[in-house]
Write a structure and sequence with these properties.
Elements lengths: L35 H15 L3 H12 L4 H24 L6 H43 L5 E3 L2 E3 L1 H17 L5 H6 L3 H18 L16 H10 L7 H4 L1 E4 L2 E4 L3 H30 L16 H33 L5 H22 L3 H29 L7 H30 L2
Antiparallel strand pairs: 1-2, 3-4
Helix pairs in contact: 1-10, 2-8, 2-10, 3-8, 3-10, 3-13, 4-5, 4-11, 4-12, 4-13, 5-11, 5-12, 7-10, 7-11, 8-13, 8-14, 11-12, 13-14
GO cellular component, one term: membrane
Keywords: Amino-acid transport, Membrane, Transmembrane, Transmembrane helix, Transport
InterPro entries: AA_transpt_TM
Length: 433
């Protein structure tokens, strides 16, 4: 079957995000099984998908829940690893599945596909908004005394930086060819290593130290912690693309389940190790004073701190347009017959940019917003939806067995995270308005 012509979720993605950017057509692969180059490429793509801005908030998550909550990080990692395998099993059962919304469509019809698509697009929109907040926070941290004056009107530093970054990003959002940006945003693994190394250097050699002991457990902060952990593993909408290869224009599923298992295991193991190291290092450095972004705790006069902050700043600028591309495509498909395509695309992209700026300035709480995204959207797309769809597509719900019990437990856990985490995040956001 020929692959549908569409902007696929780019697998050369996120520089600083555990998520699902869209940018260019899938790279042509040779036979995956037994081909070391393809194996390495796919591991790299998977690592880029899982490596994201979540690493900046992971010390804050650990500080919220205490040392005990790191166990929850490993539980989330295990659950999302398992649901990643369920996605491939759905594709094995129905070879016509080519994208993440297709799984919802095959399981629950057109309505299911639409719900999955909307959920993913809302998640992308909120993460793009988080990018602007992240930029404003870190720029104002680097230049704390800078204010802006436009036509005599005074604009506070953080607000001004958000608007300035939006103006810089806006031209990139008008591009139809995202190939260059997708290559820039593909260095997620490198960025993760740079940030982790820079922060360790700041603690070990720049006088900060690792003297904080922290708390063993903070039960009030557990919901926020687990929500942020879930946000770190929200790359599942990319997985169908990782599970496919192209051959002369035809999409073919990889035939080696064991190879897919190896790829997922390596990707999840690497990211879980780096997330754990960042959480422990950050918590030992700053304890309960850890900010929602670890870079906000760093003294800006040290070179290591500036390297970490600059790496954090460059990435979202390259990735923002990629994040909005699937949303733009969905809206364009809805209105393509009623307006000029180029003008319609220009207006949609500009309106989306303006709306994210408004949301970023209205809700400038990176930690709380990403906690909400992790609970309401990431837990849904990465845990609940794969379980529900696999049960329906496979028909395994008709017979009671060990697999059904495991899936039901994982699905119930995702549902609890979504409900409790969303409630706590909403309360936190409303209380800070």
């Amino acid at each position: 079957m020929k692959g549908e012509k569409e902007e696929d979720y780019c697998v050369r993605i996120p520089l600083l995000y555990g998520s699902r950017d869209v940018g260019e057509k899938e790279q042509q692969y040779t036979n995956f099984c037994g081909n070391n180059a393809s194996f390495i490429n796919t591991c790299f793509n998977g690592l880029n998908a899982l490596s994201g801005v979540g690493i900046l908030s992971i010390p804050y998550a650990l500080a919220s829940g205490g040392w005990f909550s790191i166990i929850l990080l490993f539980l989330i990692a295990s659950s999302t690893f398992y649901t990643g395998l369920l996605i491939q099993r759905c594709m094995d059962l129905d070879p016509t599945i080519r994208s993440y919304p297709d799984i919802g469509d095959r399981a629950f019809g057109k309505t299911g596909g639409t719900i999955v698509s909307i959920t993913v697009n809302i998640e992308l929109y909120m993460v793009a908004t988080g990018f602007l907040i992240l930029e404003g926070d870190n720029m104002s941290n680097l230049f704390p005394d800078m204010d802006f004056y436009i036509f005599g009107a005074h604009i506070a530093g953080k607000t001004g930086f958000v608007i300035l970054v939006a103006l810089i990003i806006l031209p990139t959002s008008w591009l139809n060819n995202m190939s260059l940006l997708s290559y820039i945003s593909a260095s997620g693994v490198l960025a993760t290593v740079i940030i982790l190394s820079s922060i360790f250097w700041a603690g070990a050699f720049d006088g900060i130290g690792f003297q904080e002991k922290g708390k063993f457990v903070n039960w009030n902060g557990i919901p926020s912690a687990i929500s942020l952990y879930a946000f770190c593993y929200c790359a599942h909408p990319v997985f169908p693309t990782l599970y496919l290869q192209t051959d002369g224009g035809y999409w073919l599923p990889y035939v080696c389940f064991s190879t897919t298992l190896q790829v997922l295991f390596l990707c999840f193991a690497f990211c879980t190790i780096t997330y754990s190291l960042m959480a422990v290092i950050g918590y030992l450095m700053f304890g309960s004073n850890a900010e929602s972004q670890i870079t906000l705790n760093l003294p800006t006069h040290h070179t290591s701190s500036r390297v970490a902050i600059c790496t954090t700043l460059v990435t979202p600028i390259a990735k923002y347009a990629l994040m909005l591309t699937p949303i733009v495509n969905a809206v364009e498909a809805r209105f393509q017959s009623s307006c000029n395509k180029r003008m319609c695309s220009f207006l949609i992209r500009t309106i989306l940019m303006i709306s994210t700026v408004i949301v970023a300035l209205t809700l400038p709480f990176f930690g709380y917003l990403m906690s909400l995204v992790g609970a309401l959207l990431s837990a849904t797309t990465s845990i609940t939806i794969p379980c529900l769809c696999y049960l329906k597509i496979s028909g395994i719900y008709r017979r009671i067995g060990a697999e059904l019990v495991i899936i039901a437990f994982v699905m119930l856990s995702g549902f609890i995270v979504a409900v409790v985490g969303t409630y706590v995040s909403m309360v936190d956001i409303i209380s800070h308005l």
